[in-house]
Every structure is written in C-alpha cells, then in structure tokens.
Amino acid sequence: QANTELAVSCTDTESLTTAYRSVVDRYKLRTIDFDIEGAALGDTAANDRRAAAVAALQKSLAAQHRSLRVWLTLPVATSGFTPEGQAAISSMLRAGVRLAGVNAMAMDFEPTAAVKADMLAATTQSLTAAHAQLESVTEAAGVHESSAALWARLGVTVMIGRNDIEGEVFSLADARGLTKFVRTHRLSRLSIWSINRDAQCGSAFAQLSVLSNTCSGVKQPSLAFTKIFMRLPGTKTADSQALRAAAIPQVVASPPDDPATSPYPIWKSGVAYGAAYKVVWHHNVYQAKWYTQDQSPDGPSTQSSQSPWLLLGPVRATDKPMRLIADVKAARLPPWDRSAVYRAGDRVSYAGLPFQARWYIEATVPDASLPADPNSPWKPLFRAAAEPHNANGAD
Q1: CA-CA distance, 369 to 253, in Å (whole number)?
Q2: By CB distance 3.0 to 4.6 Å, which of 7, 209, 278, 395 could disulfide with 50?
Q3: Which is the catalytic residue, given 5, 14, 37, 135?
Q4: pLDDT tens digits for 348-358?
Q5: What is the pTM of this model?
Q6: pLDDT tens digit sequence for 278-314
Q7: For this structure, is 37 an active site residue?
Q8: Cβ proximity of 190 and 229 under 8 Å
Q9: Residue 322 and residue 345: Cα distance in Å, rounded?
C-alpha cells in the first residue's frame, strides 16, 4: 500500500527478474505474493514487466526442478476486481505465468448504505463477482478451468473490525458467515488485516468506534477473529493443539490516554486539525502534516506518505501536563448556570476556564476539551500553549 512497488521503480525486466530471484533463493521460497494496489495497479508498463519477470523466473526454476507458486493480491469492490485489476491478471496469463491464485482485498468498499448495513453480504458479493471475472479473464487467455477450480484459485483478505471507510464494520458474526462461505466454495486462502488488530481497544473500559492499527475497534475477546478462521480445514493451525503450539502472545491493551496528564490534547474523531497541530493518541505524540479530520493518528496508513499524521514519539514520563493560556481571567466571570439563558457575546466561567456564547443558548454545558468544536455554541477563551495560532478557529 505504501512506498514504490519494485516493478514500477525497476524499469529493466532482466534486472527485475534478478531482484526477484535473489529473494526467492535467499529464503528458499516456494510461494510468492504480489500486492498490487494504488497507482501501481494502473501502471500498464510495470504490470507487463512484472509478468515477464515472473514468467522468466518460473521457467528458470522449473529447469532446476523447482516450482514457484505465484499469487496476486488485488483490491475488489462489491462489483469484483477493478478494470485495472483484471488487466493485471490478464498480463500475467499472457506472459505465460502459471498463476496459483488471486487474493481479493475485500475491505474499504464503496461507502453505500447497503455495504454499511451488511459487510458480510458486500464481501461475498465481491467474491462472487471476482469469480465470474476470473473465469472470463482465464478463458480469454486460453486457460479453461471448471467453476470449482476457479473458486480454488481465489483467496480473500478482510479488514477485521473497523474499516477505513466510516461506518464499515466487519464483525465477529461476519467472520463466522465468511468462514461458511469459504468452506462451501473451497477458496484456497483466507487472511486478515491484521493479527495485531485482533483485540479490543481499551483495557478496563472498551473503546469502540476506534480506527487503529493496534486493535479492532469492536467489542471482542483477544484473537477472536483468528480463532474463528482457524476452524477452517486444511491449515497447519486448524486445531487447539496447533493454536497452543503457535504461542501467539496475548494482546494487552494500554490504559486510555489521560487528558489531565497529557502534554497535548487527546485526538478526537469528528474534529478538524490544521497543519502543525500536535495531539496524543494511544500514548504517542503525533503532529498533523496538513488539514485532517476523522483520520486516526495510528490508523492503517500511519506509515504511508499519504498519512496526515507524523509520529513524533511516545509520551515521556518527564513530559509536563498541557498548559492552558486564557485570554481573560475566569475568576472575573460569572459561573455557568444551567437554568440561565445566554445570548451571543455573553461570557461565563466553567471548570475554572472562560467561555463566550456564540449565539442564543441555554442548558448546554461548555466543553473544556481541545481542540474546540467550531460548531459548539460556546467558544473557549483559552488555548493550549502548544497549539498553533488560531487553532480554535475564529468567529
């Protein structure tokens, strides 16, 4: 997903073949998988180079009585593979690559109400469409296989829990349903993104609706998705004895960030952050590279150049709590009164901090958390010392 795919940056087919061969030989690989997405997927020249290199590699290894299984990992929509994805498969087949299978990344679908309401249906719909497309593409390449054989050449990878698209949640019930689908159609592979996310966010108190690369954002026991999928036959880890032998470490969630001791505001969903704004999230400090909203600092794209957040490092024990700078002294203002009616410009104190009413308001508690919501009826007359200028917005 991030960085530059090798076939894109290496424009010489012979050099590309040598590069692939060096990795296969170094690790004595019998199976390789090419994850092609983003801009690389639409790069026709790179697709052709990759296909030619892989075909040459398979032929060279076969001469030494060695086999190499080749998979492609491609994104899918509910309508199946994208046109670019189908072209990538065709490119491999035309070059003479013996393709073991295609793994569909069934996640981050088009944000429709139907998808958000039923992620299992969206996933199985995408696989059914991908199967039909695979049949069409292979037939066009002169490869004739049965429907069952083509199902066996399909794999699926799901993003467990919260997906990157707001409202798309792949649940434990969806996992059980997908397991039945995979068993019925005999797909060759089922994977998750990712095992380090197979745990509930939060420790003593569940943190739900969180998009993170360290937890699922749904209520679940640790490794619940993994254990559901491990019931499938044909894997080396498909029984309890193998599960114990795998010695997968128990994921222990960290305690939530404490705003009382945090050196910067705690990140909040639904709030807009301007460039240079610093926040704390899951005990790390992040700085916004540009304007961003509803993108978790430790989301799946954190390590990508496309991420709006720059990881500065962990919160240190020596860091001092966030210091607030007030424009007026709260002690000189009347305390907020739930029964009072306030009009635009009225000022009050709440929790020792000054606020000013933006418009007519009553019975609404001022929000002392930062950054301030510009849609809140109360404008804070204070800011964090480390906030960029005008971070709380202007009326």
Answers
A1: 24
A2: 7
A3: 37
A4: 999 889 999 99
A5: 0.61
A6: 999 888 889 999 888 878 887 655 445 678 888 888 8
A7: yes
A8: yes
A9: 27
